[in-house]
Amino acid sequence: MKKLKISIVFLLLISTFLQAQDKAQGVPPAVAEKDLTAYLFVYFIGNKVEEEAVNYAVSQDGYHYYSLNGNKPVIDSKAISSTGGVRDPHILRGEDGKTFYMVLTDMTSSKGWDSNRAMVLLKSTDLVNWKSSIVNIQTTFPGNENLKRVWAPQTIYDTKAGKYMIYFSMQHAGGPDKIYYAYANKDFTALEGEPKLLYVPKSGNACIDGDIIEKDGVYHLFYKTETNTPGIKSATATDLTSGKWIENDNYLQQTKESVEGSSIFKLNNSDEYILMYDVYKKGQYQFTKSTDLENFTVIDNEISMDFKPRHGTILPITRSELKRITEKWGMPAQYPKINNNPVLEGYYADPEILYSNKTKKYYIYPTSDGFDSWSGYYFKTFSSDNLIDWKDEGVILDLKKDVSWADRNAWAPCIVEKKIKGKYKYFYYFTAAQKIGVAVSDNPTGPFKDSGKALVATKPEGIKGGQEIDPDVFTDPKSGKSYFYWGNGYMGAFELNDDMISAKKGTETVIKVDKTFREGTYVFYRKGTYYFLWSEDDTRSPNYKVRYGISKSPLGPIEIPENNIVIQGVPEQGIHATGHNSVLQIPNKDEWYMVYHRFSYPTGIKMGRAGGFHREVCIDKLEFNLDGTIKQVVPTHTGIESLK
């Protein structure tokens, strides 16, 4: 028995270890919910041929909507359909986060409600340009000679099948409307096979306008039942194609008027859902709200629109996606001001900023965050010409592919641009497996080639605690010499050789700071003074902040001002853990900016320890007093204005 108990304990320990290992492989989502800061409403407006088209509207809060393009179509129906018109647009964000799928009824009502046999499939990566295909069910799949209509297609990703499912209602002569499904092919241009029955009520009554949303592993199907008492009902299942739907007998619409085209979406950063439907005889929409997808409350008095939509869907979108479509079709004058912080979408931390004299652009080099327990293994960079709009330039260094001496914990990089023999070179210093390496490139976006070994792998003499992380590189404008700094728990430093990949012998030192020093050294020079910045506390702490000291030399000693906080959180605004910064000077100007990370807003503070590896990058203005001391930076959601 004793051996058995030991074995069980051992197995439990192994199981726990494997679970922990599996958890450590957690990776950032394709799109972080915290970055969904707006909504796109896709709809059509009426039964005239010119009204049967795709229209766009946008909202910041999910309650107040403004049409784009003067409420005129954003896609030419004649160019994408077989009938000259489209209705019932449904839009879906793909699993990769950046591909969008739209499906539409290929139909003009002027030809009759039983006139259509086809649907339109659209695919886009920018919400502006769409590739289209027509799928005619009757001509594509034998046995549909008596097909009368194909209505209101929608798309959902079936995780079990690993494919995109398109579901829609069809009616054959003599029978009721039923909801069918088929999987789209890889290119989203056709259906893989003939439609199969997805759902029909046990009563056998007709059902149309299906809309499916997944919540906590359960699929909720909302649909319109066509009975003596038509209305919106729902059914649930844990497997989309099992046929085992549990019907809810209750009607969900909160009106006695005729309704159709229900659609449900989740409010951003909330546990609330909005179920909306077309009150089509009244020419209006009704909005209802729920947290359980069963009990709904009317919120019409909270909703406003400057247009009258028909059967459409709403997609949560990011700030960059909002900018993309409003640059194309105009920003509504009534739309609220857009915040510019965070400057990067996604989870990123430890930002290093560079102005490149070669390209005349700005670059941010961050830690790729959102990995469980800081387990990221690659570095990216982002470019901008105005400090507001940042382009993802992709991965510039992958530890698993590009570095021989470490393959984990890719943290806190820094970079310097040097002109050597008339050509620009970029030296990129990075943390990997609690050591520091250096890679070199001819361009700020890479490719970077690792030097082949760690630049810093051991602690300075006399130092026993801390970690060999958080590099910083600084070129003294007075001497032209470059200096290197690093350390967690201590501030190590040395002068770099001209090759920029090795330490100059005899220059290594540990610079004395005070007990507030934790990590994240950053050094810059202004008007005869060397400024040393560092982070205090732990990156998992809401109180993580930046302090500073000054010196007359790039290797110290450091003098610490009495009021030396550079930036700290503003809890009442939900801003926490503002730390690990870099500083940007606009070329040839006494204009400065602070680039830093904070807990992701608004979700990070609710994550506990995980808030420390779900961080985001922000920029705010850095200003100085007349005596050269730093004015405390107040972190904001609004951020800075675009550079002219």
Automatic annotation (TrEMBL):
Keywords: Carbohydrate metabolism, Glycosidase, Hydrolase, Polysaccharide degradation, Signal, Xylan degradation
Signal peptide limits: 1-20
UniProt xrefs under Pfam families: Glyco_hydro_43
InterPro entries in the cross-refs: Glyco_hydro_43 (IPR006710), Glyco_hydro_beta-prop_sf (IPR023296), Glycosyl_Hydrlase_43_Enz (IPR052176)
Family (UniProt): Belongs to the glycosyl hydrolase 43 family.
Protein name in UniProt: Family 43 glycosylhydrolase
Originating organism: Flavobacterium procerum
